[in-house]
Amino acid sequence: MNPILLDLGFIQIRWYSVLILIAFTIGYFLVINRCKKKGISLAHISDMCFYLVIICILGARLYYCLFNLDYYSKNILDIFKIWEGGLAIHGGVIAGIIFIYFYTRKKQIPLLDVFDIFAPALVLGQAIGRWGNFFNGEAFGPETTISTLKNLYIPQFIIDGMYINHNYYHPTFFYESLGCLIIFIIIMCIRNFKHIKPGQIASIYFIFYGLIRYFVEGLRQDSLMLFNLKVAKLVSIIMILVGIYLFIRPYIKRLKKKS
User: Fold this and answer.
1) How far apart are CA 125 and CA 140, in angstroms?
2) How far apart are alpha carbons 171 and 131 in whole angstroms?
3) In whole angstroms, what is the distance from residue 115 CA to residue 198 CA?
4) Is 126 helix (H, G, I), strand (E, B) or coil?
5) Residue 55: closest CA among 22, 84, 87, 17
6) Burial class of residue 249, CB neighbours in 10 A (0-12, 13-18, 19+)
7) Residue 259 confidence class, pLDDT cut points 50, 70, 90
């Protein structure tokens, strides 16, 4: 696939950058719409979103570069070429969580409510952003056959895009994107249930995205490594545990009150 959407000569507009912009734009409107229903200050959330975009991109890039330090220590200027790819979603999520924690404390906004508001926007953004990997020809899985891909009912244009260096590969970006879309639909369907407690929408994201990423990472051929461990697998396990805690937290508090 061609990673360049538009070549104006003096500047190249890449699919990766455009898709990230689309993801952030849609996410922003989802967040703002939800804030109105939750009665949270739009001014605070708008400011948060502005800084959050910057923080998440920097976090995602720093995370990626740290686990490719051998290359970037010798090619310093390439650190700034984020339009060519190389953003690790886990780095963006971690940076975003840290920023939201301190921002909500400063502005006295309920932290768990903010997590719940951002969860659907985040996972939909990931579903969109993963297609940047498709156009960049990255984040694919092991070698396979065209018949296997067709038996999985994968669209033909994706199969064609996964024909790289005379071999077909599993489109792990597609598996993850589809999984994120399913998580988004689940969250949108249940977030108005009256029995949902603060933090439980975010818990759905942490648990299910953690599970999806854990298994997808097992297939990926370009994983970030820490010694012999796939870093994303370790982070995914942590996400699942955090999600379980957020989900059962209200019931633990209730039991403590009764005792």
Assistant:
1) 19
2) 10
3) 9
4) helix
5) 87
6) middle
7) low
List of residues 6+ apart from 237 with CB closer than 8 A = 210, 214
- Give pLDDT tens digits for 119-174: 999 999 999 999 999 998 888 999 999 999 999 999 999 999 999 989 999 999 99
CA distances from 137 to 72, 97, 99 (A): 20, 29, 32
Q: How many residues does the structure list for the chain?
A: 259
For residues 220 and 232, give the distance between their C-alpha atoms in angstroms, rounded to a whole number: 10
Between β-strands 12-14 and 225-226, what pairing exists: parallel, antiparallel or unpaired?
unpaired
CA quadruple 87, 88, 92, 98: dihedral positive or negative? negative
d(CA 34, CA 158): 34
How do residues 6-15 score in pLDDT, each as one tens digit?
888 878 888 9
| Bridge partner list, 6 | 13
